[in-house]
Design goal:
binds nicotinamide-adenine-dinucleotide; 43% helix; 470 residues; 16 helices; alpha/beta
Length: 470
């Protein structure tokens, strides 16, 4: 952290000198980031394995490929995204040139988290770079190997005058937050999210908070148990459950639960074998502190599948709990681990009530073959995103915004949304110095005739439209 203020001054000087603004520079840095990913794939995969025992497959698909695709999307569209956007003009601005110009915000701070430590640091960076900002990156100390690897690689590939990485833990993050940034993009838990927002308020810095929450999943009686189980097992136990979009609880009737359990058991065996601990595809909990929190949650309800653990290895078996109550610890907090509780409810209406009683989550899921059921859950709940008959997949499409609502955070990114997040939309009206006679009506001394004219020319009239608002 030593020399941080010097680095920040350097970044600010580069930004003020306009270094990050030209499209050529932005593209060169996006290409450099792609080069970093390409040339250091093995090192990054090793680091992810050391931190989370993340399999090569998951690391490539959910981390490296994800960032690469974001960078390519930005490169493919940057010229179009950056073009000034013409707007509809009013009667009094008919002769003017009116447009929105996307401008970079300045020096931005990106604070990442450990669960997908490459993706949650570099995906926002793609947006910040594409929009022409300078950026300070703060990877999570919890995924220490990945953090160190990124901290050593980034200065070798990206322009050091415009991009800097600072490692460290909570105290370093708190120190960083004392400085003025032009935007802060934070991914992590809500307690730290609140600290980030308070620190940002001191400088009136805008923020995006990508937080977590309990993602509920309603399984309707008409859902196919086999495909539902396979998709749920994949979504919940990927990265050993340490995924912000993972289904955090299943809501279904006891009859659906009894059909689902054997299918869940079959899927678990099919995916991870008879001993998930020996599966090369099953991850580990990132650290001891988080391991112990999860182990304690195993005491909620009744374990029907899994339940084994080993502290030395930070291993928790893929676990399914039944007979849980809303008052159980596993229902009170986001699990963020390989535990799937099933809460029995009597109807879809009750499932919707349970979902609505909770904080707004990052995602709501529903499994059903009936479009009406899906529509009911969609219409009567609120969440950052929504997906029917699957989970996690909504975040794979970068033409959809990714982000939370309410306690799961605010602000969105991915694809164009990242570019928009890190851009200021500057309202521009270019008027000619001539035609002064057209302006006389708005100048004092005022009179009734001028007022009538101004009211007439500025009136917004209701158009015929199909919406049936009175
Ligand atoms: P974490 O411990 O990695 O913390 C995130 C960042 O905050 C780190 O860079 C860390 O250095 C910093 N930090 C930690 N404690 C701090 C403190 N006291 N003061 C200042 N800075 C501090 O991550 P976590 O909180 O364990 O993350 C897990 C949470 O993140 C879960 O709730 C999960 O749902 C959420 N998450 C959200 C998303 C999303 O995209 N919405 C993605 C991944 C994780």
């Amino acid at each position: 952290m030593a020399g941080f203020s010097d680095s920040l001054l350097r970044l600010r000087a580069s930004f003020s000198a306009g270094k990050t603004r030209p499209l050529e520079f932005r593209c060169s840095q996006l290409n450099a980031l792609l080069c970093l990913l390409r040339e250091n794939e093995e090192g990054l995969l090793d680091a992810l394995y050391a931190d989370l025992r993340k399999s090569r497959f998951e690391a490539l698909v959910t981390e490296l490929r994800f960032v690469k695709n974001e960078a390519w999307t930005a490169l493919n569209n940057l010229e179009r995204w950056s073009r000034p956007e013409g707007v509809e003009r009013s009667f009094v601005t008919k002769l003017d040139h009116c447009f929105i110009r996307r401008e970079p915000l300045g020096v931005v701070l990106i604070i990442g988290t450990w669960s997908h430590p490459v993706r949650f640091l570099l995906t926002p960076l793609v947006g910040a770079m594409a929009a022409g900002n300078a950026a300070v990156l703060k990877p999570s100390e919890v995924s220490g190997r990945t953090s160190e690897t990124l901290a050593s690689l980034i200065p070798r590939y990206l322009d050091k005058e415009c991009f800097a990485v600072f490692t460290g833990g909570p105290s370093e993050t708190r120190r960083l937050l004392q400085y003025k940034f032009d935007y802060i993009f934070y991914t992590g838990g809500s307690p730290v999210g609140k600290l980030v927002m308070k620190a940002a308020a001191e400088h009136l810095t805008p923020v995006t908070l990508e937080l977590g929450g309990k993602n509920p999943c309603y399984v309707s009686p008409d859902a196919d148990p086999e495909s539902t189980a396979r998709r749920l097992v994949w979504g919940r136990f990927l990265n050993a459950g340490q995924s912000c979009l993972g289904p955090d609880l299943v809501l279904c009737t006891p009859e659906v639960r009894d059909r689902l359990l054997p299918a869940l058991k079959r899927s678990l065996r099919e995916f991870y074998g008879p001993r998930p601990r020996d599966s090369p595809d099953y991850g580990r909990i990132v650290d001891r502190h988080r391991f112990r929190r999860l182990r304690d949650l195993l005491g909620s309800g009744r374990v029907v599948l899994g339940g084994e653990w080993d502290e030395e290895e930070r291993y928790i078996a893929p676990t399914v709990l039944v007979d849980v109550k809303e008052s159980d610890p596993v229902m009170k907090e986001e699990i963020f681990g390989p535990i799937l509780p099933i809460l029995s409810i009597s109807s879809m209406g009750e499932a919707i009530e349970v979902i609505s009683r909770g904080q707004k989550p990052l995602a709501v899921y529903v499994f059903s073959s009936c479009a009406k059921v899906i529509r009911e859950v969609l219409d009567h709940t609120s969440s950052g995103g929504f997906c029917s008959n699957d989970n996690l997949m909504q975040s794979s499409l970068n033409t959809l915004p990714f982000g939370g609502v309410g306690s799961s955070g605010f602000g969105t990114y991915h694809g164009r949304f990242s570019f928009e997040t890190f851009s200021h939309r500057r309202a521009c009206l270019l008027r000619s110095p001539g035609l002064e006679s057209l302006n006389v009506a708005r100048y004092p001394p005022y009179n009734q005739q001028k007022l009538n004219w101004i009211l007439w020319v500025t009136d917004v009239r209701r158009r015929d439209c199909s919406c049936s608002v009175l």
